[in-house]
């Protein structure tokens, strides 16, 4: 029979755990069959380590080979915490393993095998590149990586590999092509790469051959079976009760803790190697004594005496009854004495508590700082941030092309938004996988504010670091024509539910009117005047946006055609999400919308008036208006209404900016970035904005100079022209190409 080829990735420090896994494999192999073990490392293992591993030949004969691998191309690719570069060796092993080897099984080193490995090693791999057990949260990972839920997604720690098939493919080229567009987006290491690139060439193994993570927890199995994976509860229960292979991915490893319910299995193997002793076992990992269930014997059935017949008690039974009474009396006295002692101790403890001052946790929570004070303090701190030493000029493209690769950016954005979420492409734009929370200030190259929340501690820490230590601080927000679909629009393909364009500012958010942003400062300067070439470019792009009805979000699920036609003399009012930051920091409130509605009614007595509700406000009666105001039908495209309306009323909405681009009469009730430049009818003035701008100057500064775009398919920075083409391609039904082996 063909040999069983087993492959490990390891290093000098981790090799002792590799040997434990190998021992578990050897002692469960029952066939008389050649076994070849290959350990992939970046430097040769010491003779002493290899000698200790070779001692396992006493259990079962095997061949041991240490192969040196160069995986430096993966050196700066992020993976899960605690996982070293060695995890990527399996992506190049087809080049270093013997070229006549047709198949192997790859095993992580935190594994115990409990049944003959040949049961899965010899499966039919025709047409498949990899075989493995479905990951416990495969659906979650697939959504994060932009794949359909039901795509094959294995836990890569146990993988049967069809090496002959791999060598027939441009295997390395396919991986490199994926890395070119996703290098900074990888969060799950080689497992993410394997499943993203080759998911159409993966075969599932029975779950018993990789029982990992929380699969051993009954509550987890009940909550996740069939929800975050395709497993049935019955097969998960069966695998957890009698696993063929235990993969210790649950919390801490068994050599460090006994938390894993099967930590004892690992130690049973570890103690048979030359690397571990009983003294090294964590105390909580000691084998548990078997629990013997106490069963109460059924009462002895004594036949009832016949009527008129008295039951005679024997002398022995009387003695037994007397002794039992004495024992019961003694037990009762002991219980009373213990209860008295417990009450006495409790009384003393209560007295001590009453005498001692209350701890911090016992004190009532201090009242929250009034919000208007937070508003005032943040405005003052932002003013200081904007006055720190800054470069004279700042435009997004020049800045981003000049920053080094792999910088560490601390952010107040949500982790779920950055790792597979709406803001994931920001990591590609910044050329770094290290855009996350939790970085210490000493290891932070720069700070990014993705949200302006005055009750968030991270927001204040970022302002403090920028102001006190002159740390680079960027205010980042999805740009005006830089998205295709909102993240929660699940009917859109996952990869299209991510922002691919951002406004970058080093002074403040463009929507925060309390202090000048870089965008406002630039527009206020003579430098914002355009050359003829720049003006022509801006005009061409504006025409393209209007002609094609491009807006902030450009995905619309299939719906029946609308017969509604917006009247040419109609007035359009635009609602906004109630907690929109542009309202809060644009000198507006809920009442501002009421004032806007009343003004539109009074100023347009003979015109039809329509209110476009924000999708998040649908079904909620937020505004008061009379019968003269109608709700714009949902099926009516907002861009179509914008093209037809005579007047537009907004508070701070981007729709007002889109109205300006169309040359509409735009009435503005807040202080958005596009008001105050002579292009809108403003109900509030902002004296800082002193220049009269052209539409092209406003557009060029906001959408070209201060905005940046990335092609999510290639990871390359692109111009706005290319970004608009991408939107049109996706909207017209051209599917985003995925790099797979399909």
Description:
With 742 residues, this protein is α/β, with parallel strands linked by helices. It contains 25 helices and 23 strands. It has a seven-stranded mixed beta sheet. Strands 12-11-13-14-15-22-23 form a seven-stranded mixed beta sheet. Helix 7 (171-182) packs across helix 8 (189-198), helix 13 runs parallel beside helix 17 and helix 19 packs across helix 24. The longest helix has 41 residues, at 315-355. The radius of gyration is 35 Å and the shape is elongated.
Biggest sheet, strands in spatial order?
Answer: 3-2-1-4-7-6-8
Through-space gap between termini: 32 Å
Low-pLDDT sequence parts: 285-313, 734-742
Helix content: 25-40%
State the helix count: 25
Averaged pLDDT, please?
Answer: 88
Structural class, from helix and strand content?
Answer: alpha/beta
Number of extended strands: 23
Strand count, sense and barrel status of the largest sheet are: 7 strands, mixed
Shape: elongated
Percentage of residues in DSSP E strands: 5-15%
Radius of gyration: 35 Å
